[in-house]
Specification:
It is a single chain. By secondary structure, this protein is mostly helical. It has 2 domains: about 80 residues; about 35 residues, no CATH class. The chain is built from 4 helices and no strands. The longest helix has about 35 residues. The chain is flat, with a radius of gyration of 19 Å. It starts with about 25 loop residues before the first helix and ends with a helix. Bound molecules: zinc ion.
Length: about 140
């Protein structure tokens, strides 16, 4: 990851003292994800608000249909972002509890590669597959 230039959204995130040093990277990734999700949520909520308050409300039928579409789309975005936010926060809590990077089913340490790809993973690959088969 040498290409940091041009990535203007890099925010300096202070790391609290109760975050163990081996999880500093994960903490930063999670906090950045949290900020991004909050931005997404704010944007979606604003988009809905604009539709309800804007000129296009109270117009003809076509406008009404447009508003419904926006509400549906933003609703999906919001639901998705809130679910992710919950998982991100749970992962940050797990870092504080010292349970982060441990599979909650079998207790095995989740490989770093998996956590890099999925920083809020709570299961090792094996248990994840088991979970998915059960559904
Ligand atoms: Zn497991």
């Amino acid at each position: 990851m040498a290409k940091r230039k041009g990535f203007t959204a890099q925010v300096e995130i202070p790391i609290p003292d109760d975050i163990p040093s081996q999880h500093h990277d994960a903490y930063m990734v999670l906090r950045r994800r949290e900020l991004a999700l909050r931005t997404t949520l704010r944007g979606s909520l604003r988009a809905i608000g604009d539709d309800w308050q804007g000129d296009n409300f109270g117009g003809d039928l076509a406008d009404g249909a447009q508003i419904t579409t926006t509400l549906d789309e933003e609703g999906v975005t919001i639901t998705h972002a809130e679910a992710q936010l919950g998982r991100v926060n749970a992962a940050i809590d797990a870092i504080r509890d010292g349970t982060y990077s441990k599979c909650i089913s079998c207790g095995v340490t989740i490989p770093k590669a998996r956590l890099n790809a999925l920083p809020f993973a709570t299961h090792c690959v094996k248990c994840q597959e088991k979970e998915e088969r059960r559904r």
